Amino acid sequence: QVQLVESGGGLVQAGGSLRLSCAASGRTLSAYCMYWFRQSPGKEREFAAAINWSGVTTYYADSVKGRFTISRDYAKNTVHLQMNSLKPEDTALYYCAASHRACYAKPPIKSHEYDYWGQGTQVTVSS
């Protein structure tokens, strides 16, 4: 059984940084496109970042471009999201997801489009 477990969320002041991790177990996800999505209360889930199987190609939402960096650690079967210059509007529940399909710059947000999802980690940015 494949599991994705996110960690690294927390409470941080505006301008601060956090590093999220998504650890996979049950199978290696080295051939999968890995995504980070986020969802705030009352809002639709939105795409944040993606990284392809080789780690060479990355995609970012305009709202996080230049502040967030996605990376993957093949040895640990883990994907990271480094978040810098955080803003109150970054407050959300952050999820990682895996897809065996090619990465999309504007990916679908429906759960069934992905092979695996994590449970999420909360990020709260205070002003």
Explained architecture:
The protein has 127 residues and is mostly beta strands. 0% of the residues lie in helices and 48% in strands. The strands form two sheets. Strands 2, 4, 5, 6, 9, 10 and 11 form a seven-stranded mixed beta sheet that branches. Strand 5 and strand 6 (58-60) form a beta hairpin. The radius of gyration is 13 Å and the shape is globular. The model has no long low-confidence stretch (mean pLDDT 96).
Question: What is the secondary structure topology, with strand pairs?
Answer:
Layout: E1 3-7, E2 10-13, E3 18-25, E4 33-39, E5 46-51, E6 58-60, E7 68-73, E8 78-83, E9 92-99, E10 116-117, E11 121-126
Parallel strand pairs: 2-11
Antiparallel strand pairs: 1-3, 3-8, 4-5, 4-9, 5-6, 7-8, 9-10, 9-11
Properties at a glance:
single chain; 127 residues; mainly beta; 7-stranded mixed β-sheet; 0% helix; 48% strand; globular
The general outline is globular
Question: Count of helical segments?
Answer: 0
Termini separation: 40 Å
Total beta-strand segments:
11
User: Which range does the strand content fall in?
Assistant: over 45%
Query: Which whole number gives the mean pLDDT?
Result: 96
Radius of gyration: 13 Å
Helix content: under 10%
- Poorly predicted regions: none
Sheet/helix structural class: mainly beta
Main sheet overview: 7 strands, mixed
Give me the strand/helix succession.
Answer: EEEEEEEEEEE
